[in-house]
Every structure is written in structure tokens, then in C-alpha cells.
Amino acid sequence: MLERIAQHWPAWLAATISYPLAGIAGRLVAGPATAWTSALLAGAVAGLVVGGAQALAMSPRRPDLRWPAVTAVGAAIGLAVSVTLGFAPLPTGLLMGALIGIGQASVAFAGSSVATRAIVAWPAVIAAAWALGWSVTTAIGVDPAAGWAVFGLSGALTSQIVSLAGAFAVAGRPARVAA
């Protein structure tokens, strides 16, 4: 699955726009993510939107619906725990990204004989991507106390570039991938 990110990298970068849309959708459904209940719901909605856009980017004809599902679960749990414990943006991004990455790795490497290095590397890549995404968004002046479920466009671009670089590093760029 990660090789599809490398193969469809322009679409993967285009999925960047899904992050601010996901934040808006999460806020419309759950309100600001300032309590664990609203964070859980807003994180789930945001994760579905981001994961859905990423799944479409990887396989426009037949997106793997497990990808948005595991992205939603990781985002929901990570955001709810972070809000409950009062985490700053950097640890929030690390936790959300690690949980999202674990779920995505379980989908990307299900039934494959890929090396353990790749299975461990993807959650680390996504943890770094989400930590940087939250950090960049906060650095440009977005107040983390506003209760957004996901970072904005500047953080999204950062996160997508880091995850794209990670996909190239973990999976490489194959000569041919079946769609």
C-alpha cells in the first residue's frame, strides 16, 4: 500500500486540502475538541475525512476503506487522550500520529512479508509528520486552545510532505504497482 503513495504522489499531495476540511467537519459535528467526548467525536470525523482523501489518492478506482477507518480510530483516541491530559501540540501530534500510523501499517502490510523495519517505520513516520503538522500550525499563530481536531493547511502540507518522504524511504518507488 505504501508503494501506492510513492506511485501516486501528486494525488497524495493534493489530499493536503482534506485536513482543513476535516477540521471544519469535525467542528461542525462535535464542536470544539476541548473535552474528551467532543475530541473523540471530532477526531473520528476528521480522521475519516483525511483517511478517505488519502485512500482515494492511493487508489482512485478502488480505495481501501480500511484506511479511513483506522485513521479515524487513531485520530479519535489520540485526540481524546491528548485533550484529557492537556497535551501541547507537539505531544498531541506524536500520539495521534503514532496511533494513526499503527492502524495504517496494519492495513498497508496486512498479509505481506514486508520487513519488520517497515512495519515499525510507518508509525514513526506518521508520528513525526503529525507532530510537525501541529507544530507548524501553532507556529503560524493558530491557538491550540481553539479545539481544532486536526491542523490547518500549513501543517497539512508539512505532514503530507513528511509522510510522502517516509513512504519513499519505507516502501521505495516500485517500477510497477497493480491498481
Helix/strand layout:
Layout: H1 2-7, H2 9-14, H3 18-30, H4 36-58, H5 66-85, H6 89-108, H7 116-139, H8 153-171
Give the amount of beta strand, in percent.
under 5%
| Structural class label | mainly alpha
Q: What can be said about the biggest beta sheet?
A: none
H and E order: HHHHHHHH
| Low-pLDDT windows of residues | 174-179
- Tally of discrete structural domains: 1
Number of helices: 8
Distance between the termini: 10 Å
Total E-strand runs: 0
Helix content: over 70%
Mean pLDDT: 90
| Structural shape | globular
Query: Rounded to an integer, what's the Rg over CA atoms?
Result: 15 Å
Summarize the structure in words.
The protein is mainly alpha-helical. The protein has one domain (2-171). Helices cover 73% and strands 0% of the residues.
Give a quick rundown of the structure.
The chain is 73% helix and 0% strand. The chain has helices at 2-7, 9-14, 18-30, 36-58, 66-85, 89-108, 116-139, 153-171. It has eight helices and no strands.
Which features would summarize this protein structure in a list?
mainly alpha, disordered C terminus, 73% helix, 179 residues, globular, 8 helices
